[in-house]
Fold:
Amino acid sequence: MGQKKPDIYLQQKRKIQFKVDDVIRVGDLMDIVCEDENLKRNLQILKIYKINENDGNRLVISKLKVMNVILEYIEADLRVYGPDSTIVEIGNSSSTSSFWKGVMVFCVYVLVFIGAAMAIMNFHEDVSLYKAHEHIYKMFTGRENARPLVIQIPYSIGIGVGMIVFFNHIYKKKINDEPSPLELEMDNYQTEVDDYIRMHPEETNQKENSR
Amino acid sequence: MIWKSVCMALIGFGHGIGVGTATVAFVVAIGVFPRIAQFTKTTHLMRWYESMATCGAVFITVMTVLNVSFHLPPLFLAVWGIFHGIFIGMLAAALAEVINIIPILTRRLRMEEQVNGILIALALGKITGSLIFWLVPGFWE
Structure:
């Protein structure tokens, strides 16, 4: 065989979503670049793994496993870029009913609502805010007022406005199109979880079975 | 006698430096100012914001010490109050964000689409709590 081995460039994907009984193919895990379009198409449909019910919520498929499959199919020079492994998230077909989901969402809303309300009360008590308001009232108007509602009611509404503005979430499209700090935070958290899964595949995926 | 005064002045000055730096450290750690500068697209004015914050702190301290009154109409305090509230709201939001509650809550309970609802519940909870605290007798005084 005097023929030159083909160069194949691969870019591994970070994360993909699948359902039970789906078959994962090379094309799902990798973006492929090579000279021969036919070869590319054949590579894309090479079978890596069929998801079964025992796989749980996720699988981690390493670079080496995919390279192995390709090299068994064709002798080639592989250049693989991207992360060392792909996380396959397996969607749950039997999710909880929408009724219970609704109940749970409602409970969370109540939890957050009451928690926020009590926290702000405790804060006011802790920092003796009423004294500060009384002081400020005296300073600016020159009169005593033990219940300076004119400052306290706008203040209360302002708290809500400030939180919404800070999270910049609800009217995001109108104010500006940058990601809100919350979106960044959630993305960071997700990335950390993914990195953890990559570093400890044995804890989340004990059944690294044969193809 | 004069030495006593000098000593007291030194102690007061040192106390002031301590409290001032602590305030700045807190505000920096919480990260409210960069956030305000970012969404108003005025990061280049950051220095002015810092100066204004310093002026505010010094102004109120001096006025409290001198025990001044300005004899302004009470309505002025409504403006003061709303700005005060917005700032506290941002502080609370930044604090909630720093300790990472919402990302973990939404992920664990798989409510990623309901984040807006959670935020609104959070903000309404703060408003309600605050109003109850001020309007219902017995919480203070």
